[in-house]
Amino acid sequence: MASALQPVQLHRCAAWCVGILLAVLAACSTAPVAPTIPTAIPEDVGLSGQRLSGIDEFIARMQREQKVAGAVTLVARQGRLVWLRAQGLADLESGRPVRVDDLFQLQSMTKPIVTVAALQLIERGQLSLSDPVERFLPEFADRQVAVAREGAPDGFELVPAVRPMTIADLMTHRAGFAGLPPRDSPGARLQRAAFAGLPANQDFTLEQFVARLAQLPLDAQPGTEFRYGPATDVLGRIIEVVTGQPLDEVLRVRIFGPLRMNDTFFRVPPEQRARIVPAYALKPGLGLVRLPPDDPAPRFISAGGNLFGTATDYLRFCQMLLNGGELGGVRILRRESVELMRSPQVDSIPVPFLPGQSFGLGVAVRKAGDPTAWLGSPGTYGWSGGYNTYFRIDPDAQVVFALFVQLDFSPRQLELQHGFHDAAVRAYLPAEAR
Question: Is the per-residue pLDDT at 6 higher than 90?
Fold first, then answer.
């Protein structure tokens, strides 16, 4: 059986063929596959199959130039899947082709899911955006900030935080932790040193990770500066404290189960691990170099980044957001919560690889009228992961598009994400906007 689903094009029997192929794929897989989003041919939802093939052409060029081993790409519109394609190799060493039901390490695409779990608690009145973090994690009381001072011991002094960090600060990466953009500041140096001392095999828990973070001074005053770092991990620990359950169980019961995301795990069952796509890094002069594998069953459940999942499972999560918090008759969030999530909270994200973007709650949001922004509609939102997984949701056009690869992210190597983004957007934007 072919490892890729061809793009549906030109005639109506293609939609029937896609449904049959997805059913065959589910039957042949060694693991249960979640029911798929309904399929359609592009023209039925106002798209062009010919323009969609630009995604195929772009990924094929990346492969020819040995910039990526393989990829799964998808596009859905108006709740119907019109493009699901696997191209290239999952494993360069064995020559195994990539499949649409392969498991990808989602890395930071974990963060929007954890944000949704926190918003669920807010809806239930168990959490508030204005709640101080110390209400749930007392070790974060009486925060101090490391400020550089010439002549001071170790080159810095500690000053009191002007206010406690809040749940909103965690959701917008303004809690004061060090992160991106990088700084050679006292707080950043102390944070790097503290986490360099953790076991390389991540033999620690989320609770232990957050407890170590709480011992450190902050890098900035809470609420003042965007620093993309460990804030979501702290949010995940708060979810555990509020619910009295481990984070992986909370997500399974409240999000993955209801959405039938049956192939999304923090700990991949042993019988499914052959489906994990290995990660590579693009090294100058060496090409694609295989990275050491991440633990498929980590002790550390990172709210910020160690989920495994399939492309179609993540599509179900995205489609739920696009539908205003509901999918298949199951409501995960209120529509108002989704609107809040995609409403700008931070005007600009101060990193060069997210031009023209503001930040909502757990997602970047394309700004209107910013010439530096990538192609697309204002209000389009989404996020990406450390291995170049990438998704965007366009509420105006009712489109979800996503890329699943396992290539180590570098801010200097944006061609993959940028090229896929433009190819996907050109498939649905009107001609005058392309």
Answer: no
**CATH entry, 13-114+249-433, from 3.60.10.10, 3.30.565.40, 3.40.710.10, 3.40.190.10:** 3.40.710.10
pLDDT at residue 112 above 80? yes
Q: According to the model, what pLDDT value does residue 213 have?
A: 96
Rounded CA gap, 221 and 328, in Å?
A: 43
In 3D, which of 159, 246, 160, 176 has the Cα closest to residue 213?
A: 176
- State how far the Cα of 213 lies from the Cα of 102, in Å rounded to an integer: 34
Q: List, in order, residues 6 or more apart from 34 with CB less than 8 Å away.
A: 260, 261, 262, 263, 310, 312, 313, 316
Whole-prediction pTM: 0.91
Hey, how many other C-beta atoms are within 10 angstroms of the C-beta on 392? 25
Q: For residue range 393-431, list pLDDT tens digits in order.
A: 999 999 999 999 999 998 878 999 999 999 999 999 876
CA separation for the pair 379, 363 (Å, rounded): 11
Q: Is the peptide bond before 181 cis (omega within 30 degrees of 0)?
A: yes
Q: SS3 string of 28-83? A: HCCCCCCCCCCECCHHHHCCCHHHHHHHHHHHHHHHHCCCCCEEEEEEEECCEEEE
Output the pLDDT for position 200: 74
DSSP 281-319: EEETTTEEEEPPPPPSS-SS--TTT--EE-HHHHHHHHH
Average pLDDT of the chain is 90
Look-up of token digits 């503290």: 194
Predicted pLDDT at 178 = 96
CATH class of 128-244: mainly alpha
Question: What is the spatial distance between Cα 420 and Cα 74, in angstroms, rounded to a whole number?
Answer: 11
Residue 34 above 50 pLDDT? no
What's the pLDDT at 77?
A: 97
